[in-house]
Amino acid sequence: MATSGIAANAYAQIARIASSSAGGIGGAAGEATGATGGNFGAMLKDAIGSVAELGRKSDAQTQAVAAGKANVVDVVTAVAETEVAIDAVDAVRDKVIQAYEEIMRMPI
Q1: What string of DSSP letters covers 57-78?
Q2: What is the pLDDT of residues 54-92, one digit of tens each?
Q3: CA distances from 87 to 12, 24, 42, 82, 103 (A)
Q4: What's the N-to-C CA distance of the chain in angstroms?
């Protein structure tokens, strides 16, 4: 299976989402911190929506194969893309939790 191709597609989708969310992750360099908070939230919402859409696509492909209307290779590809996207979301979640825990350990 072309796992590197699937991963490249997932990273390309994340890059597309990041660049399309009103100036990217950080916005313009001169923006205030409060203004960029909305951009990160919008990017996160778009990323979660993208993962959900991949899941729906995977489910639709699975149902199409069960009905005899699709190719098994398409289902495997759709499931693998969804798995890579979910793994990326898990990695981001773990990093956010790790950063939060690090901030909580800082002395006041």
Answers
A1: HHHHHHHHHHTT-S-HHHHHHH
A2: 888 888 888 998 888 888 888 888 889 899 989 988 898
A3: 15, 22, 20, 9, 24
A4: 51
Q: Do 71 and 78 meet the contact criterion of CB atoms below 8 Å apart?
A: no
Q: Is 71 exposed, middle or buried (0-12, 13-18, 19+ CB in 10 A)?
A: exposed
In the chain, what is the greatest distance between 2 CA atoms, to the nearest angstrom? 63
Q: 81 with 10: CB under 8 angstroms?
A: yes
Helix (H) or strand (E) holding 21: none
**19/28 Cα distance (integer angstroms):** 12
Which residue in this structure is represented by tokens 């993208």?
A: 50
CA distance linking residue 20 with residue 12, whole number of Å: 12
- Rounded to two decimals, the pTM is 0.57
